[in-house]
Amino acid sequence: LASIHNGLRLGLPDEDDRMPYQDFKDSCNWVDKHYSFINPPNNTLAEVLQLWQISLTQKGSKVFVLDPYSKVNWEGENEHQFIRRMLNELGEFACRNRVTVFVVAHPRKMEFQPGKQGGRPMESGSRSRCSGRAEARQPCCGSSEYRVTDCLPRQ
Questions:
Q1: Which of 32, 35, 117, 136 has the highest Cβ tally under 10 A?
Q2: Tens-digit pLDDT profile for residues 12-45
């Protein structure tokens, strides 16, 4: 994030184009001011939403990123039930608070499977390789794909 903020590379100590230390400190201060990172003790969805609500209330946060969603503890439910419930609760949080929520799902690594797809490696970005992908297209907030604008008054 420091590199994105100031456009300079972190680099190695002996590299000429390395980010100067003061620029690094300034960028870290900017990141601390504009980003919050949470680490819920049990990684439950309820804990994530509770910490997000605190961030919203105390800091006025408007954008929330769940990355990766697969780290959220879904013990006691099957994966598809959990994903459906999670997407509904995240959508309700976004609608109720008029914020944006991004859910990041990392696809599995590329696999080489001789005889399948002509013996070529499967694409890592293939949508079908992402666990729980089908649940993400289930209705939420009244549409087939959730958008925060669905919850805002029409002008």
A1: 136
A2: 888 877 899 999 999 999 988 888 888 899 999 9
